[in-house]
Specification:
The chain has 6 helices and 7 strands. By secondary structure, it is of the alpha/beta class. It has one domain: LmbE-like (Rossmann fold). Strands 3-2-1-4-5-7-6 form a 7-stranded mixed beta sheet, sandwiched between helices. The protein is globular and about 45 Å long. The termini are close together.
């Protein structure tokens, strides 16, 4: 999927936990293989926290989750755009993406599918496509937000990569009520995608742009 030489990879997560859910296993594998992976979350979703959690709970959980996948602290970043209001900040988000492009110069971008129906995810997907015209782009899967999803690219995973993804998602104490964070779901989807090409586990992606 990606060149054997070390590559700069940028994961764009509209909200904390989106990057882990969409491509956590791939992140674990790519870090293990020596690629430089940076993940940026655009909202820590303070307004969506259950009662009893501190305002910045998701920021701390996000950092712990990314460390569990192997990222270094300087490659973990988040912003505070208001959850479910990204369309109001489209131009500011685009400029943030352009600044990332100029500073990090990523070669491969992971972002939400262009068919994701969540309004915040749509903004990150579309503005990411605008900002990173010279990069390869893969759209990650979030079945609860995707009416359609084209599985055009697969990243083969080993048991240890799936386990790291599950461990990362377990760091989100404030989100454990969500069914799609369950270990059974994560493992089941990875098995389903692996079965599509006779492998044990995989994550699937839309090929939005691939530059060779």
């Amino acid at each position: 999927m990606i060149s054997l030489s070390p590559t700069r990879i940028l994961v764009l997560a509209p909200h904390t936990d989106d990057g882990e859910l969409g491509c956590g296993g791939s992140i674990a594998r790519l870090v293990e293989e020596g690629h430089e992976v940076k993940c940026v979350a655009f909202s820590i979703a303070e307004d969506s926290l259950p009662a009893g959690f501190e305002k910045d709970a998701l920021a701390f959980e996000f950092q712990k989750a990314m460390l569990a996948l192997g990222l270094t602290p300087d490659n973990i970043h988040f912003h505070r755009f208001k959850v479910r209001h990204f369309p109001e900040f489209r131009q500011q988000i685009l400029q943030t993406l352009i600044d990332m492009r100029n500073q990090f110069r990523p070669e491969v971008i992971f972002l939400p599918s262009l068919n994701d129906i969540h309004q915040d995810h749509q903004v990150i997907a579309n503005e990411g496509l605008r900002a990173f015209k010279k990069s390869s782009i893969l759209g990650y899967e979030m079945p609860w937000n995707n009416i359609v999803f084209e599985t055009r690219c697969f990243v083969q995973l080993q048991e240890r990569h799936v386990e790291k993804k599950i461990l990362a998602l377990q760091q989100y104490a404030s989100q454990q009520h969500r069914s799609y964070l369950s270990a059974d779901f994560i493992r089941g989807l990875a098995k389903t995608r692996g079965t599509q090409f006779e492998s044990e586990y995989a994550e699937a992606f839309e090929v939005i742009r691939w530059i060779v």
